[in-house]
From TrEMBL:
Protein name: 2Fe-2S iron-sulfur cluster binding domain-containing protein
Co-factor requirement: FAD
Domain 2Fe-2S ferredoxin-type span(s) in chain numbering: 1-91
InterPro entries the record matches: 2Fe-2S_ferredoxin-like_sf (IPR036010), 2Fe-2S_ferredoxin-type (IPR001041), 2Fe2S_fd_BS (IPR006058), Beta-grasp_dom_sf (IPR012675), Cbr1-like_FAD-bd_dom (IPR008333), FAD-bd_FR_type (IPR017927), Flavoprot_Pyr_Nucl_cyt_Rdtase (IPR001709), FNR_nucleotide-bd (IPR039261)
Domain of life the protein comes from: Bacteria
Gene3D superfamilies: 3.10.20.30, Nucleotide-binding domain of ferredoxin-NADP reductase (FNR) module (3.40.50.80), Translation factors (2.40.30.10)
Alphabetical UniProt keywords: 2Fe-2S, Dioxygenase, Iron, Iron-sulfur, Metal-binding, Oxidoreductase
Species this protein is from: Amycolatopsis echigonensis
Family matches, as PANTHER family: NADH OXIDOREDUCTASE HCR, PROTEIN RFBI
Lineage: Bacteria, Bacillati, Actinomycetota, Actinomycetes, Pseudonocardiales
Single annotated GO MF: dioxygenase activity
Keyword Iron-sulfur found: yes
Start and end residues of each FAD-binding FR-type domain: 98-198
Length: 336
């Protein structure tokens, strides 16, 4: 029999082996969440009544002292009784429910070095916010891997994912880059994550700085297109950091956006293989510091490998961006 988890005036059923976060999101009750694998700490909450099993919560994300103080990671904890939890940041409000769907592969396109675009067709719309991600289940296994959506939310029957091959990767080298074919069915779970714009009526319309590394460009495309649909004159700078020119993609799409939106700029930056390219070189965070003397009143969006995200946070703060409007999505190695 399921237990119940209560936050504010919302009470959701939770099966004994179901992570608490999963139960909340499937019921359409929002909780802060990001990695969904116990590494980021975003979903940390306080259990004020009842008992949980912390299961695989890593000790460096949830310390012994925190456990003793009643904290838990919602994405890992299972209920041992009915619980009442508290967490900040608007938890408990309605959100797009987490769902499992069977998608059909519509398109597989090699778009850059070791990088593929997948377009998956859905049998029915999936409500999500631009910038969120989905999980794909590797066929015949329980292995799930997370991929950001490059879509805007109105493209709700087609999901676009940008996938970089990982040497030895169970989902990439052994499946998506090996034998995945058009027409194949794929199990999708989503949407997840809170790397999203504020709702339109709470969006101040201020300038935005977006920095993505590699396929970290994917959610930034969705965010930039959504923000520009709200206001085509909005100032947005989007830096794409890659090793070399062979890693760049969607340059035509970016050029089209820049043509139709006068204050949008797309800025590729090559870190290791400048070759004869006309693009700028180095690290995108350094180029941001060079270009933008003050980011006071801006918001910031960082997606990619953790060192790039950390450097981006420092760069944004150096330019006086308020910490509460610095949003980050770390591409961390998949949990085993
Ligand atoms: S630790 Fe739970 S969402 Fe990251």
């Amino acid at each position: 029999m399921p237990f119940t988890a209560t936050v504010g005036d919302r009470e959701v059923p939770c099966e004994p082996d179901q992570p608490m976060l999963d139960a909340f999101l499937r019921a359409g009750v929002w909780m802060p969440n990001s990695c969904n694998q116990g590494t980021c700490g975003t979903c940390k909450l306080r259990v004020v009544d009842g008992d949980v099993d912390h299961r695989d919560s890593p000790a460096d994300t949830l310390t012994e002292d925190e456990r003793a103080a009643g904290l838990a990671l919602a994405c890992q904890a299972r209920l041992r009784s009915n619980v009442v939890v508290e967490t900040g940041g608007g938890a408990g409000r309605a959100t797009h429910p987490l769902r499992d769907l069977t998608a059909t592969v519509r398109e597989i396109e090699d778009i850059a070095r070791d990088t593929r675009r997948l377009r998956l067709g859905l049998p029915e719309p999936l409500a999500f916010h631009a910038g969120q991600y989905v999980e794909l289940t590797v066929p015949g296994t329980a292995v799930r891997r997370q991929y950001s959506l490059a879509n805007t939310a109105d493209e709700d029957k087609v999901l676009e994912l940008h996938v970089r091959s990982v040497p030895g990767g169970a989902a990439t080298e052994k499946w998506i880059f090996a034998d995945l074919t058009v027409g194949e069915q794929v199990q999708v779970t989503g949407p997840l994550g809170d790397f999203v714009l504020p709702p339109a009526d709470e969006d101040d319309g201020g300038p935005m700085a977006l920095i993505g590394g590699g396929t970290g460009l994917a959610p930034l495309i969705g965010l930039a297109r959504t923000a520009l649909a709200r206001d085509p004159n909005r100032k947005i700078v989007l830096y794409h950091g890659v090793r070399g020119e062979a890693d760049l993609y969607d340059l035509d799409l970016m050029a089209e956006l820049a043509d139709s939106c006068p204050n949008f700029a797309f800025l590729p930056v090559l870190s290791h293989e400048p070759g004869n390219s006309t693009h700028r070189t180095g690290f995108p965070t350094d180029r941001f510091l060079e270009d933008i003397p003050s980011a006071r009143g801006w918001s910031g969006w960082l997606c990619g490998p953790p060192p790039m995200v950390d450097a981006g946070v420092k760069a944004f703060k150096r330019r006086r961006m308020a910490p509460r409007v610095i949003h980050r999505e770390n591409f961390t190695p998949a949990a085993t």
